[in-house]
Amino acid sequence: MSDLPNCPECGSEFTYDDGIQYVCPECGHEWSKDASAASEDEALIRDANGNPLADGDTVTVIKDLKIKGSSSVVKVGTKVKNIRLIDGDHDIDCKIDGIGPMKLKSEFVKKA
């Protein structure tokens, strides 16, 4: 198994090291080794206070959140248990008691 990262463009696992950069033989994409380390840091999802979040964490809502298409509101201080981190604008997938499954933005929660 290779310790080299997959290609960020096409996802190919056949990348190779070419001195100061990585190269993908399938799509021809080239990227620096420094960019690979930076992208790992960017992928880290943080709460409103800058604390890193992980799957299974418990978070607290820091602002009243209106639920689109409903008259319900997620109130300040609502605890959300067992979150799952996902890609996208709303990067937390969870189930809130009394409301049901929904997606939240990490900027509106803090780690409990």
UniProtKB/TrEMBL annotation:
It holds the Pfam family Zn_Ribbon_YjdM. GO terms for molecular function: hydrolase activity. The keyword Hydrolase applies. Transmembrane segments: none annotated. Residues 45-112 form the Protein YjdM C-terminal domain. This is Phosphonoacetate hydrolase. InterPro entries: YjdM (IPR004624), YjdM_C (IPR013988), YjdM_N (IPR013987). It comes from the Bacteria. Keywords: Hydrolase. It comes from Halomonas saccharevitans. Residues 4-32 form the Protein YjdM N-terminal domain. SUPFAM superfamilies: Prokaryotic SH3-related domain (SSF82057), Zinc beta-ribbon (SSF57783). PANTHER family: PROTEIN YJDM, PROTEIN YJDM-RELATED. Belongs to the YjdM family.
